[in-house]
């Protein structure tokens, strides 16, 4: 399947940039809702500024349910789809939520069980009873929203995508979702820009995976004609490593803001398990 774009979102973001406003790209959040809110607060957004989450909002961290709510309800926040959301869309079995079923096993292996538990915690009342109706209603809304997300966002000077593009597959706007959500090495190692006019800003591949510190960002050796990097990776790995954090990149100014992951609070469900 070819990747999906949303021209209305692209037009809104480009207008913000054209009028001197800030558009911030944020790397993989992986369920760290409190850290995301702290990072957004530190950006001091004006009413015209916008934020784009580069996919993998969910899994591994403690509160994926809340991260989705933030992204879905905040009109200043947009998102592209990540490979973890793709797995959730294919695998989430609300009738067997939290259970290792054949359908959910692959998703649980990459962190999906933490997402299931965040929904259980959110919809377990003070008497310890799961509010099944409200849970299913919320899951349905969240899955429908995730299924509507673009796979990439194309602006005048940037492409925002979860994983990247293949340098061998021709028209970037016709590339498969497998490339956009999962690609690594062949994109990172390209000796020429995949887009001669735009810098690709992506998540998915962590700084430790590039051999970098979590306080750094990755820039491609390939450059555009204006000497900007052909690609910039900003997934600082918020769920593991010596210094887990989230990274935001300002597309207007090039400024980088990082937020160390806040201490994790165990949910009631986790304490019981």
Helix and strand element order: HEHEHEHHHHEEHHEEEEEH
Total number of β-strand segments? 10
Question: How does CATH name the architecture?
Answer: 4-Layer Sandwich
CATH class: Alpha Beta
Order of strands across the widest beta sheet? 3-2-1-9-10
Q: Report mean pLDDT, rounded to a whole number.
A: 95
Which residues form runs of ≥5 with pLDDT under 50?
267-273
Supply the helix-strand structural class.
alpha/beta
Compute the CA-based radius of gyration. 18 Å
Share of helix, binned: 25-40%
Account of the protein in words:
The chain is built from 10 helices and 10 strands. Strands 3-2-1-9-10 form a 5-stranded mixed beta sheet. A 5-stranded mixed beta sheet has the order 4-5-6-8-7. With about 270 residues, it is of the alpha/beta class. Mean pLDDT is about 95; it is low at about 265-273. The protein is globular. The longest helix is centred in the middle third of the chain and has 17 residues, at about 130-150.
Summarize this structure as a short list of keywords or feature phrases.
273 residues, alpha/beta, Purple Acid Phosphatase, chain A, domain 2, five-stranded mixed beta sheet, 10 strands, 34% helix
Write the layout of secondary structure elements.
Layout: H1 7-18, E1 23-26, H2 33-42, E2 50-53, H3 64-73, E3 77-79, H4 83-91, H5 102-109, H6 112-122, H7 132-148, E4 152-154, E5 158-161, H8 177-182, H9 185-188, E6 199-206, E7 218-219, E8 231-235, E9 245-250, E10 256-260, H10 268-272
Parallel strand pairs: 1-2, 2-3, 5-6, 6-8
Antiparallel strand pairs: 1-9, 4-5, 7-8, 9-10
Helix pairs in contact: 4-5
């Amino acid at each position: 399947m070819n990747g999906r774009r949303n021209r209305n979102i692209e037009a809104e973001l480009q207008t913000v940039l054209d009028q001197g406003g800030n558009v911030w790209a944020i790397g993989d959040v992986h369920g760290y809702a409190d850290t995301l809110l702290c990072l957004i607060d530190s950006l001091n957004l004006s009413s015209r500024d916008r934020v784009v989450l580069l996919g993998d909002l969910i899994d591994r961290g403690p509160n994926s349910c809340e991260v989705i709510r933030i992204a879905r309800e905040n009109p200043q926040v947009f998102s592209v789809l990540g490979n973890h959301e793709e797995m959730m869309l294919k695998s989430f079995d609300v009738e067997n939520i939290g259970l290792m079923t054949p359908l959910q096993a692959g998703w649980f292996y990459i962190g999906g069980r933490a997402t299931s538990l965040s929904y259980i915690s959110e919809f377990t009342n003070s008497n310890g009873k799961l509010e099944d109706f409200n849970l299913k209603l919320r899951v349905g809304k969240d899955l429908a929203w995730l299924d509507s997300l673009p796979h990439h966002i194309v602006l005048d000077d940037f492409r925002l995508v979860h994983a990247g593009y293949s340098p061998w597959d021709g028209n970037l706007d016709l590339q498969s979702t497998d490339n956009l959500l999962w690609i690594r090495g062949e994109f990172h190692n390209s000796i020429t820009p995949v887009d001669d006019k735009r810098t690709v800003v992506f998540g998915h591949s962590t700084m430790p995976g590039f051999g970098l510190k979590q306080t750094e960002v990755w820039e491609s050796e390939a450059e555009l004609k204006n000497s900007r990097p052909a690609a910039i990776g900003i997934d600082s790995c918020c769920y593991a490593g010596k210094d887990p954090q989230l990274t935001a990149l300002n597309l207007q100014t090039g400024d980088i803001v990082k937020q160390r992951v806040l201490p994790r609070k165990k949910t009631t469900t986790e304490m019981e398990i």
